[in-house]
Amino acid sequence: MATSPAQLDAIVARVEPLPITAKRMFGEYALYLDNRIPAFVIDGVLSVKVTSLEDERLTVDLLGPIFPGSKDYWRIPEPLAADGDWLRELLMATAALIDPPKPKAAKRSKAPGASRT
């Protein structure tokens, strides 16, 4: 079951005023914070990357893949997802533990007059 726009909007609204942006990825949504992806919304469920972060609410029974063959993520069920303060803290802490994206390499241009072989 794909994530509906209403489901995505509800999750994003819960973490306001965090500057979260959602972008389509793999047919679902990646959530960006500080140019990092701390979470995905898959089948209407918030799925947070597993890091070294420890929280008593993150229990083993919440771990699961977001698609066949993926790494495990914290699949946040509705009762936990309803706590906006906790969600904001979780996403900020997770994003802080993720390495920033590597800068993209500059495109190399061919020298003027160079021909293809």
CATH superfamily: YgaC/TfoX-N like chaperone
What order do the strands of the largest sheet run in, or round the barrel if closed? 1-2-3-4-6-5
Tell me the number of structural domains: 1
Specify the biggest β-sheet.
6 strands, antiparallel
What integer is the average pLDDT?
90
Beta-strand residue fraction: 25-35%
SS element count, helices: 3
CATH class: Alpha Beta
**CATH fold node name:** Yope Regulator, Chain: A
Structure description:
This protein has 3 helices and 6 strands; from the N terminus they run H-E-E-E-E-E-E-H-H. It has 117 residues and is an alpha+beta fold. The chain has one domain: YgaC/TfoX-N like chaperone (Yope Regulator, Chain: A, 2-Layer Sandwich), CATH 3.30.1460. Strands 1-2-3-4-6-5 form a 6-stranded antiparallel β-sheet.
Write the layout of secondary structure elements.
Elements (H helix, E strand, L loop, with lengths): L4 H10 L6 E5 L2 E6 L2 E7 L2 E5 L13 E3 L6 E5 L1 H4 L2 H14 L20
Antiparallel strand pairs: 1-2, 2-3, 3-4, 4-6, 5-6
